[in-house]
Amino acid sequence: MPIFFVSEKGGEADFELPKNFHIRTIGRKKYWTQLGLSFELLRHPVDVLFVPSHSIPFIHPKRTIVTIHGTEYRNCPKCYSLRDRLQLELNTMLSVRWAGRIITPSASTKKDLIKFYKAAPEKITVVHHGAGVGKLKVESGKSKTQKGGDTEKESNILFIGRLEKRKNIINLIRAFNILKERTEQAKKPLKLILAGKPGFGFDEIQKEADRSEWKTI
User: Fold this and answer.
1) pLDDT given at position 143
2) 154, 142 in Cβ contact below 8 A?
3) CA distance 217 to 200
4) What pLDDT is stored for residue 129 in this prediction?
5) Is 85 helix (H, G, I), strand (E, B) or coil?
6) Which among 51, 107, 126, 116 has a CA at the least distance from the CA of 77?
7) Per-residue exposure over 30-48, b if at least 16 CB sit within 10 Å of its own CB, e if not
8) CB contact at 8 A, 68 and 51
9) Do residues 176 and 157 touch, judged by C-beta distance below 8 A?
10) Alpha-carbon dihedral sign for residues 170, 176, 179, 182
11) Chunked in runs of 10, what are the mean pLDDT values of the chain (217 residues)?
């Protein structure tokens, strides 16, 4: 019986699950993986466990698959607090040791796991991030009525992710400013939308956004 574990009562997956899947709630906010999920697996063992993040619970089956998305805390330590670095270091080290198979989104992350944690190359598979485009519905931009009754479609550039300096968001803002100034897009309803929580270097990102004459929020 395939099981999908969630953390909130009445929670659901944000994607379509096969009909034979069952949802099981683990009602714990802190230490959900190491305590909540471990206790659940101790009471109700499973044959295979897939962990979509980097942390494998202490109690886990031999056939465990984990996804390790990156080792940025190694390559850019100043972007993380000491506590976060230690936690990421420990979780990644244990996951590499415990997992039967490891999924990474890039060859670079695979190389880092081999270099820093002596992971066996043969148990790492690179699976790039992506989505099934056949299931995505892209809505056309909103139309804006101009003088004379003409309509013009609104275009948006959307960034989704933690707003951190290391993600080159400052240069994204500068590039957007150039686009608005040097092309006909300046006369059209074009917006740059940054969606995400503040992270390392957010103050500098905020200052750059404040300097832009195109800022609306």
Assistant:
1) 53
2) yes
3) 21
4) 84
5) helix
6) 116
7) eebbbebbbebbeeeebee
8) no
9) yes
10) negative
11) 73 73 81 90 94 94 96 88 92 96 96 96 93 59 52 77 88 91 73 89 91 78
Q: In this structure, what token pair is assigned to residue 129?
A: 């991030």
Q: Is 60 left (phi over 0), alpha (psi -120 to 50) or beta?
A: beta
- Give the separation between CA 37 and CA 77, rounded to whole angstroms: 29
Q: What is the pLDDT of residue 181?
A: 83
Cα–Cα distance, 90 to 81 (Å, whole number): 14
The token pair that represents 91 in the structure block: 């979780």
Q: Tell me the residue ranges of DSSP E strands in the chain.
A: 3-6, 22-25, 48-51, 63-67, 101-104, 124-126, 143-145, 151-153, 155-160, 190-195
Q: Catalogue the E-assigned strands of 74-217.
A: 101-104, 124-126, 143-145, 151-153, 155-160, 190-195
SS3 145: strand
Which residue type, as a one-letter code, is found at position 172?
L
Give the Cα separation of 109 and 126 in Å (integer): 9
